[in-house]
Design goal:
The protein is of the alpha+beta class. It has two helices and eleven strands; from the N terminus they run βββαββββββββα. The two termini are 61 Å apart.
């Protein structure tokens, strides 16, 4: 319980406290509110610090939502893997046999370094006659201002994803850590499988 009183022309707020007595029972005393606030200030500061810290941690841990490639628009995140976020910059062109060609992506690493690449994927199905027993994703890094699918060029990296779980590197340089997950998205496999 609290009440307001005027003493010496000043308005003071008092809290009524029930304090246990050393002898037994309890007694009631009135304590000015400023004394309570002085005692509560460290608790309030700690609570505020916890709230700010929790909010900051939640903000840092928010991961972009991966969009299935067949629903993605330029700017959408296709894959988040190993500290890198892969966004669609240019839509893929469907082609034969069952491929997606000349797609453009931007790769932003956890150090906020962004690079661009042209990516192609040829998707297969297990146990189909005359079809490879793997999915194939390959790409090349683009220079500043270069548009995917315009100039073509040598493949920098290539990854074959066999249906038995094995992978094989075929490019001039190792495939990026996110290539396998991007292939799953483009070929609608794994977490991206159609329902």
């Amino acid at each position: 319980m609290s009440f307001v009183s005027k003493q010496n022309g000043k308005r003071l707020t008092f809290f009524t406290m029930c304090c246990p007595s050393k002898v037994g029972g309890a007694h009631v005393r009135q304590v000015p509110a400023r004394k309570h606030l002085k005692n509560l200030l460290p608790i309030g500061a700690i609570a505020c610090l916890l709230a700010v810290t929790t909010t900051a941690i939640q903000g840092c841990n928010q991961q972009a939502k991966e969009t299935p490639s067949h629903e993605a628009q330029p700017g959408d995140t296709l894959v988040v893997k190993g500290g890198a976020e892969i966004r669609l910059t240019h839509t893929f062109k469907p082609g034969e046999p069952n491929g997606l060609f000349d797609g453009g992506i931007s790769v932003t690493s956890d150090q906020s370094v962004t690079s661009t690449a042209e990516v192609n994927a040829v998707c297969s199905m297990p146990d189909l006659p005359n079809w490879p027993q793997y999915d194939n994703i390959y790409g090349r890094w683009l220079t500043d201002g270069e548009t995917p699918g315009v100039e073509g060029g040598k493949t920098d990296w290539q990854l074959l994803l066999y249906f038995n779980g094995q992978t094989e590197e075929k490019g001039r340089e190792p495939a990026p850590a996110w290539a396998q997950r991007l292939a799953q998205n483009l070929c609608r496999k794994g977490d991206f499988q159609d329902d």
